[in-house]
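Example 3.2
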Amino acid sequence: MTTPDIARQTRIGVDIGGTFTDLVWVDDATGAVRVGKLLTTPKDPSQAVEQGVVAVLHDAGSQASDVCSLIHGTTLATNALIERKGARTGLLTTAGFRDAVEIGREGRYDMYDLFIDQPSPLVPRHLRLEVQERIMADGGVLTPLDESSARTAIARLKEAGAEAVAICLLHAYRNPVHERALKDICAERLPGVPVSCSSEVVPEIREYERTSTTCANVYVMPLMGRYLDDLERKLKDLGIPGHFYIMLSAGGVATPDTANGATFLHQIYTRARPGYTVQTSTTSNNNVIVIPNTKITSGILVNYNLPVTPMAAEVNLLAGLDGRDQKIEARFYDPNGLQIASSAANQFVGPAQKTADFSGVALMPTMTEKPAGAYKVALYSNDKMLAQEGFRVSQDLNARASAAAAEKAVAAAAAAEVKKRDDEVRRLAMIDERRAKPLSLRSIDFLNTTKTGARISGATNSFEVSKVLFVGWEVKFDNRLYRLEPNQYRVDAVYIGPDGRTLGSVNDFQPVSANMKAVTFSGRVGNSRGGAFLPGTYTVNFLLNGQSFAERRFQVLADTGGSPYATNPSGGGFGSSMGSSSSTGSSSGSRGATTASSGGAVGPTIATGRISGLRSGGSPAMELRLRPQPNGFLHGELDIHLSGYGSTPIEGFVRGNHLQFQVPYGTETFYFEGQRRVDQISGTFESTPSGERGTWTTQTN
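Structure, written as tokens:
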């Protein structure tokens, strides 16, 4: 379409929405405005545009031939991406990188959703094929393109019915030579199939972004191509001669050819590394490249200004001559002739422009390892060289030294950061290892103590039966989580008698702060009046938070210095309990420990009587059946003639005339203590947890 050579010029804007299609008609001469609205036609959106243009022109009383431009905005491409209604797309990529578009990056659109479902790639995995090639990060060719593998991959895409092809090779933004070769093979093997190269669509670093954008671009190209061709034909049939533009997402406009995927010129700026200076050389073909004579800071800073001869400067602006898109590519070469960078730029050059200035940015690789000498930049249009210009890179020793120092500082900071990170990793690993065994056993000691824990003796593994009250224990640990983290622990000690029966257990629970180097746990088992332990070897099993960590033994020895737990002189004992050696009391005379006193009962004893103090009241009858053991322990049964009690086994011990035993009844445990005087056995009792207390008296049979 060309601009009409008429006095009146009008413009039309069209926007297609999901429900309505809106139009605006403007008369540039008078400023008159007309608007139109009609329902969108989803199956063929161009139909609503056509109908709306006819309606708004009729409403304005204007002719189609008056329209100098029509600008069209549509979400057709966006909708196709959202609804997944684009072309069946294939992807050609470097071997080993077919899944980059699916792996993506760490970022999520909802960072707190742990079960988020990421959208599937536009290109399914079976249509993502690899080719053998490799471009290095500096643009150098590590592995040349294997055209055989490329043709095989393209043939597979053809068999799979690919309607569009995206090409995204590693580091193609540095050197697109392999992408261009693949594009040529696709044109040969897949005629008519749209192809997008990442080096043309988004020549930027980062594989996921570049690959996904290139795939999205070619995914909608067939759809947009058909739509724009159809719409342009309909506008031509209506007799609209003016320019037809498409609104871009960035806010600009483009011709249908551009929107259909034509390649464009990208901007070119470059910077070199410190230690080099750029110098200009001669120009050629009347195309001037201005290169500032400055110290290079990170690449090669080159500003290109390319005057373009006007296409028809002698024609009046309103004569109707079309402008067009101009595309220029800059390619950079080192002194060895190796292409080290490239960039492209494009812009629309209108008929009113006498010149067009192209400029752009290209990030060149690190120049430190590049030789000083003559470099070259060449400008191309459609692979046809327009001009080339040389420039020299020479060393600046002062700048190079400064750069080296700066790089050293950066490297040191990076190394420090790595060390800090590694130290933290090691610290966390150490914590994890020490959490498995947070305390290291230093020692376990046994002591003779009082009920409150006051020491009667030093640490020992042997105790005299006449002197031991409570056998206490102290367990000392080194805290392996010192200065790392706090914790809390419980140590249990389980006492086992010489006959293998469990006597009881005691525990100690302590919180341990991070500033405690060591911690001591303690506990004790015994009786304030003595008599809890008989001669023999006892075993104590120690547990830390329920896990066994040690077993220790102590001995209770029969001694020769009178026993305060012997029978009193006037009464009979319950039988042998102190071993075979004799003992002499300082105040009670002498007697053989294996011989009972005159009234003693050395065998089983039955005693009957009554008990008072039970919560049921009264004084019910009771019967004791006692069977003293040679080691001093007491077995037997207690039978209380009262409902809910009955005959129950007892466990306890005897020491001369003194006896202690306990009896369980339901949820209660009764603790009995008593003395024998000739043929009478009596004493007190207390129960837990109710706290019942009372007395009992029996007569031996």
